[in-house]
Amino acid sequence: MVGGRGCGGAGVLRCLGAGVLTFVSACSYMPGQQEMMRAEEELRAIDDVVEVHFTCPGTVLASDRLCTDVVMKDGARLRFDHVGFNSFGSTAMNVFVAKASGLAPRIASCGGVGTPNFHRTSPLGHHFHPTLIDMKDAVSRYQELLEEVEFWPQCPQYWEVQDRLGQNFRYCARREGSTEEPPRPVGCR
Where are the alpha helices (DSSP H) in the chain? Predict the structure, then answer.
């Protein structure tokens, strides 16, 4: 039809606009967007949290790819990686801390170098008593996290730990702007 009715003539722009609006509102129902909203809701429910920012964009599908900056009432800032459905609740597996106290904690294994997972089942989980259940627990106990990372040696110096399977991990913390990493453990192929 022509003359502004239906999608003919000037009505084409209205139909395209309505289509874009429908697509944008449908995005909030995408699994990735729901995951981000759930993570933000969980973190904002903690009393000491004043700001939550997602620095890695979400995806259409749900995954543990979100990065989250959390600002506490006292001004402390933490950054978490691998945030998603596996970060919250009794079945959580992820408490990856990318930055705390202006330091970037790093861990090296035979598989590579990256941000450490402080979840109770990880090689560094035993550093917390009681162990960290999930990311919400870690944020609630953020002062313990800050103390832990501040206690680590400065990269390239490192400490070494062995997990329950006998695999070695080396870890250190680097200052902002530094690119030094802990060396991979001896015997890696």
Answer: 11-27, 31-44, 135-140, 142-151
Residues 165-182 pLDDT 10s: 889 999 999 998 899 999
Could you identify the residue written with the tokens 């695999």?
A: 167
The reported pTM is 0.79
* Contact in structure between 100 and 94 (CB atoms under 8 Å): no
Beta bridge mates, 88? none
User: Residue 50: which H helix or E strand, with range?
Assistant: strand 49-54
Cβ atoms < 10 Å from Cβ of 159? 12
**Closest residue by Cα to residue 47 from 112, 132, 124, 136:** 136
Is 43 exposed, middle or buried (CB count within 10 Å of its CB: 0-12, 13-18, 19+)?
Answer: buried
CA 1 to chain centre: 51
Tens digits of residue pLDDT in 86-117? 899 999 999 999 999 899 999 999 999 999 99
